[in-house]
């Protein structure tokens, strides 16, 4: 109410609160206000409210090193065809990526194999990475999880979707589709690589959305080939991996040191 465009104030506000170690209680307070206006559990933290924008900026600031150690090695591979039993695939075959309308049907299977290779690898790196998640992010996720469970006590899944809506949809998936904006790649990817990253990002969003691998969710894909592709992920092990990861990153239990982390730059000038 003080600032006409509150989004202009979000970044300096987050930096100020981080400096004074007050960000977690502030986010909890504005998130609680946000939840009062949320009527459906499946829409939790999906809009661009003050609470969600604050968490977005916090993740960008304190999660840079976390993204780097988790995603950069595998993203560096994207754009370079993996070795298969047929040898190294040509760029034409590799970048078909499943769409039967844009490539020869004889290479669709190979393209699907390539996409599955990258989705599996990115997903595996993410669900293994909880030990590297910054403590501040874990503290925020812990607050959001318990606020969501309190707001929707009859929905056992909302505590997970409250966290996945940030860590998967607004953090990892965004970094995959735009790695250059998170300094994971030196420049904007070319059109073909960008297409690959977009499909990987969609896959990560879907796998990370709690209970997303259902027929109703799969039918929402605009591309029929993506719907067919995700039928291969309808296994309980993927859901259980996501659940364990979300449990870990929304826990306040102390973590082991995760190696050297980069300092957080709060002030300049």
UniProtKB/TrEMBL annotation:
Keyword Glycoprotein in record: no
Molecular functions (GO terms): GTPase activator activity
Organism: Anthoscopus minutus (Southern penduline-tit)
Keywords noted in UniProt: GTPase activation
Protein name: RASA2 protein
Region called Disordered, residue ranges: 247-269
Gene3D superfamilies named among the record's database cross-references: GTPase Activation - p120gap, domain 1 (1.10.506.10)
Residue ranges annotated for the Ras-GAP domain, each copy included: 5-209
């Amino acid at each position: 109410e003080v600032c006409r465009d509150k989004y202009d104030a979000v970044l300096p506000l987050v930096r100020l609160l981080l400096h004074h170690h007050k960000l977690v209680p502030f986010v909890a307070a504005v998130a609680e206000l946000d939840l009062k206006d949320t009527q459906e559990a499946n829409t939790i933290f999906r809009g661009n409210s003050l609470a969600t924008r604050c968490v977005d900026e916090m993740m960008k600031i304190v999660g840079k090193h976390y993204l780097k150690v988790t995603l950069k090695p595998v993203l560096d591979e994207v754009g370079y065809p993996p070795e298969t039993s047929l040898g190294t695939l040509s760029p034409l075959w590799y970048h078909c990526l499943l769409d039967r309308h844009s490539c020869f049907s004889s290479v669709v299977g190979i393209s699907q194999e390539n996409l599955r290779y990258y989705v599996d690898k990115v997903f595996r790196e993410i669900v293994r990475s909880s030990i590297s998640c910054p403590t501040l992010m874990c503290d925020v996720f812990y607050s959001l999880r318990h606020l969501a469970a309190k707001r929707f006590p009859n929905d056992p899944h909302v505590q997970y979707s409250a966290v996945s809506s940030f860590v998967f949809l607004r953090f990892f998936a965004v970094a995959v589709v735009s790695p250059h904006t998170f300094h994971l790649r030196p420049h904007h990817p070319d059109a073909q690589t960008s297409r690959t990253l977009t499909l990987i990002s969609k896959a990560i969003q879907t796998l990370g959305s709690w209970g997303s691998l259902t027929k109703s969710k799969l039918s929402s894909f605009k591309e029929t080939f993506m719907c067919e592709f995700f039928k291969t992920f309808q296994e309980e092990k993927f859901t259980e991996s996501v659940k364990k990861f979300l449990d870990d990153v929304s826990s306040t239990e102390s973590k082991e040191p995760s190696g050297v982390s980069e300092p957080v730059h709060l002030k300049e000038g």
